[in-house]
Amino acid sequence: MPLESAKFVRFEGGKPTSVCVGQLWKGKKVVVFALPGAFTPTCTTSHLPRYEELYETFREQGVDEVYCVSMNDDFVMKAWFEKLGVNNIKSIPDGNGEVSKALGIWMSREELGFGPRARRSSFLINDLKIEKSFIESETPGDPFEVSGAENMLHFINPDAQIPKPITVFGTHACSYCIKTKKLLEEKRLKYVFVELSPSEKSIVIGALNQGASTTPQIFIDGKCIGGYTELAALLQ
């Protein structure tokens, strides 16, 4: 299927609406990244958040929009984006797999019980023509080596200034989480805040940082630096 003919379905006002990527991307320079699934580990902690953090940097390099493709339905994608506080990246809920097939990244993950999925990848598309693609290898597991936001930005402009990624895991009522967000905003540092429910807190925090039990847990460039106290000391 030609890329310009691929369609996906959004729900607007509770009703399904078919959207053609040919209409979305015609005459535009867009970055499109694809991932195996909403709410899965690498997609949630690294792949999507980093593109969101660097959205304005992509715009500064002449990119019109950045899109995330996943073979999930629109309801799941909206819930995932809301959970991560994603406001800039546009979602492509590719539940039927048409966009993934047109990009050549449709794959089967039946061995994991996932069924058909999109291979982790990224594309620079100019007026519906693929100018560059970064597609992860078919090695076992979930390789994430070439399709990240930094690699795509480096291809577009090797001299682009790329800030280190900051991800904060916390809860809504946590006073130190509030202080952390205020400090980062005062320093004009972009970050992604992943809000955890009370039932998620102990499980997620323990999995992210073995032995930890408090929030926030702050990751800079993929490494946990600790909480608010450690961040404040680092930014002095």
UniProtKB/TrEMBL annotation:
Membrane keyword on record: no
Q: Which GO terms describe its molecular function?
A: thioredoxin peroxidase activity
Which UniProt keyword terms apply here?
Answer: Antioxidant, Oxidoreductase, Peroxidase
rRNA processing in keyword set = no
Q: Which GO terms describe its biological process?
A: cell redox homeostasis; cellular response to oxidative stress; hydrogen peroxide catabolic process
Fetch the CDD domains from UniProt.
PRX5_like
- The molecule here is called Peroxiredoxin family/glutaredoxin
Give the source species.
Gregarina niphandrodes (Septate eugregarine)
